[in-house]
Amino acid sequence: MLTLKYITDNTTEVISRLAKKHFKADDLIHKIIELDTERKQTQTAADSALSQSNALSKEIGILYQQGKTSEANNAKAQTTTLKETIKELTEKQTIIEQELNDLLVQVPNLPHESVPEGKGADDNVVERSGGVIPNLPEDALPHWDLAKKYDLIDFELGVKITGAGFPVYKGKGARLQRALINFFLDNARDAGYLEVQPPYVVNAASGYGTGQLPDKEGQMYHAPLDDLYLIPTAEVPVTNIYRDVILNENELPIKNTAYSACFRREAGSYGKDVRGLNRLHQFDKVEIVQIQHPDKSYESLTDMVNYVQTLVEKLELPWRILRLCGGDMSFTSALTFDFEVWSAAQKRWLEVSSVSNFENYQANRLKCRFKGGDKKTQLCHTLNGSALALPRIVAAILENNQTPEGIKIPKALVEYTGFEFI
């Protein structure tokens, strides 16, 4: 979340910049400032009462020594009243601080100055593109038909076992999944990312730390008996490794990668765009996360985008990179680049990765800080990216590489799959 100091010191700027995200912040920001003023006044009153109480406490002993019993008793009565006042003010301040925090988490992150204007996906800007779009025959099959033809993925069996959006991968389909996971992890390690294996369920504090709670609570699977949440992405547990941690400046950047299954309710997703692997409730993904110095986070963002580009190039997929406009950005992001690959049979672009810089927005919620050479403590910047999400990568590989004889496996994957052809 934004720091209270930044909001109070830069009120007009905050409201103006949030407008680029099409977020009307006026009332919310002004309510925050009003509560902060009330908080300060309450704190001042409590401090004053405490000071008076302390002074009287010292005076009481002296008065008793001097035999001024009546005055000492009066002073004692005053301290009792002051203690009650201090208690009431402290309780009031606790309530105000909770209300203030509840409002602060409703304020989105500020978009970076390079974020383009726009209301939605149609206004995103294509940064660059590459690869060769295959010229398939008119009777080319979409991936869900290819998966059935070659017995790779059973969507109906997934419905039987769990429900829609939980496919069962079989034979070479399962091996292709495992090959992609290992391929992505090996490439991430070669790029300097430390592999971790995180839990697939997290507590509410972890969801709050990375911004999934309370903003996306309805999109997460919740186990209410234990108050735990199934992770929507490995970003959540991996970034929370550094919650309430003070790092040394020379430890930055920290670079982690993790494979995990991801779970998303995807409430409200219907229609042709959700068919097959296009939108699932459970899917596999390899994530990259960086904890970085504020002065170097945008350099790291560029590096991460360039790294993801190498992955889609090695997989021989046609790709493009989009700079997201203000209206299409997430609640927590300051700047996001989406990767899309071309689906030859569906004849459309499929999103396979988002790479984002959150600046200190997540770090403020996480209390993820570092201590510099001047011994002062500062908030870190956090970044993350999909590298990569498997479902639509698999869809594009199956569709783009289909031939009358079968499906050709990209050369970079053959050593992982153990086969060149399906």
Q: Can you give a write-up of this model?
A:
The strands form 4 sheets. This protein has an 8-stranded mixed β-sheet with strand order 1-11-12-13-16-10-9-4. 42% of the residues lie in helices and 20% in strands. Strand 12 (335-343) and strand 13 (348-357) form a beta hairpin. The two termini are 48 Å apart. The chain has 422 residues and is α+β, with helices and mostly antiparallel strands. It has helices spanning 4-9, 11-19, 26-65, 69-104, 143-149, 155-161, 171-190, 204-210, 235-239, 297-314, 361-366, 390-400, 411-417; strands at 125-130, 153-154, 168-169, 194-195, 201-203, 222-223, 228-230, 246-248, 254-263, 282-292, 319-323, 335-343, 348-357, 369-371, 377-379, 381-389.
